Amino acid sequence: MTLPQVPGYAVVEKIGSGSYSTVYKAFRKNGPREAVAIKCVEKSKLTGSAVDNIITEISLLKVLKHENIVEMKDFQWDDRYIYIIMEFCEAGDLLRFIHKRRKLPEAICKRFLQQLALALRFLRSHNVCHMDLKPQNLLLTAKPKLTLKVADFGFAQYLSTDEQNSSLRGSPLYMAPEILLKRKYDARVELWSVGVIMYECLFGKAPYSSSHFQELAEKIKARTPIEIPHSPPTSGECQDLLRKLLQHDPNQRIDYESFFQHPFLDLEHIPSSESYQKAIDLVCEAVKQDSEKNYSEAFTLYCDSLRYFVPLIHVETDPVKKSVLQSKVKSYIRRAEDLKKIVYGHDESNEEASEENRGINTHVDNGSPDFNLLCQLASRTPAMATALEIGYSAEQYMAECQYQTALDKFQSCLGILVPMLSAEPKGRRRDLLHLQIQQWLKQAEGTKAFLAVVNLDSGNIPETKEWCRMQ
Q1: Is 181 helix (H, G, I), strand (E, B) or coil?
Q2: Which of 88, 141, 175, 396 lies deepest, with the highest CB count within 10 Å?
Q3: 9-87: which CATH topology?
C-alpha cells in the first residue's frame, strides 16, 4: 500500500477509512516527535454536499477548541487531496472500548458521559449540532488520564433549539426518531443519540439493535418500548436520565438545561481548579463549625467537601500529590463518620434491626418535636404520612452505612414531598414540611458524598497491555 506524502509529516500507517477519506497515523518531521492523525480527503470522490461538509468541518474545527473535542492542528491541500491534520487519540474509540469489555460499569459510563456533556455544553454555546454522535466518533486519549473527545464533524451544522431542519444526517442506529421518520427536527436530536450511547455503554448493545435498516425503522415507527435491563443493576438516577433521553417525542425528551443539571451527571463536582478551591473552602468552614460544636452543620460541610475531593483523587496523576490528597481526604472521612454518629445518635448494637424497627410503621418518632408534630399533622394525608415514614427509614439506613438504600429512600420520599410542598397552604404544617424537606435534601447530599467514598476505587479499569488504567 502506497502511503500519501504530506509536507512536514512522516506518514507511517493507515488507521481508518470512510466513503471519501482515509485516516493515517503520522509524525511531525520538525520539532518534537508528535504523533498526529491525518484525514486524507480525495477531491475526485467529493459530491456537492460532501464539499459543503468538508468546508463546514474545517471551519468549525478552527474555532472549536475544547478539552473534549479532538483538536485540528492544521490543514493542507494539493491537486488530489485535502489533508486535515488532527490530534492523535492513541486509545482508539469508545465502540472498541465497549466491545473489549462487553459492558461498562456505571461509574465508568458516568465519567464518559460527563465528558461528553461538557463537549455538548460547549457546542450548544456555539449553536453547533454534531449530527453524528456515536461511539465510533468518540475517541479516547490515555495520557495523562483517559479522556473522551468528540471527533468527525463532517455532518455538523449550526442549529439551535428554535431552528428546524429536515435533511437526513447521521447514522441510523443513533438517529433520533424524528430524523428517521423524515420529520422536522431541531438540536434536541443530539440528546436521543446521547441516550443510545449511554445505553450501549451500560448494556453492551444499542436499545434498537437491528440486523438491517428496515427492521430499525419499523421499531422506531411502532414506538417499541425501550426496556432497561435488570442486569447489570443501575442506580435510580442513571435509569431516570436514560428514560428521559430515550423519549420518542422530542417534546417529552429532557431538554439541554435539565440534561446538564441532571444529578447523575453531577457536572458541578467535575474536577477542576475551581472545584479544588470549593473543596478547600468547604472543609475550612467545616473545621470552624466543628470547633464551635455546631456538629450538624460541620457534618454537612464535610460531606459537601468530599463530593468535590473524591473526583479530584480519581483524576490526579502525580503519585505524590495523589497520596497526599488521599491522606487528607481519609482524615475528613473519619471526622465525618464521627460526626454522623453524633448527629444521628446511632446505636451500633441495633444494626441488625428489622425493617419494622427502622420506622416503617404508623408511629414514626425520631426524637425531634418538630418532626413528630409534622407526622401528627400529616396523619390526615396518607401520601405525606407514608413519605415521612420513608424519609425516617432513610435516616436509619444512613446511620447503618447502607448508603445506596438510604439515598434511594431519600429520593423516593423527596419525590413525593417536594411537589406536595408547592400545593400546601400556608400554616404550621407547611412550615414544618419545608424545614424537613431542607434537612433531608442536605442528608441526601451527605449520603451521595459517602457513596462517592465507598465507590472511590470502583471506577478503576485494570491495566492491560492495550489500555491504561482510568484514573
Answers
A1: coil
A2: 175
A3: Phosphorylase Kinase; domain 1 (3.30.200)
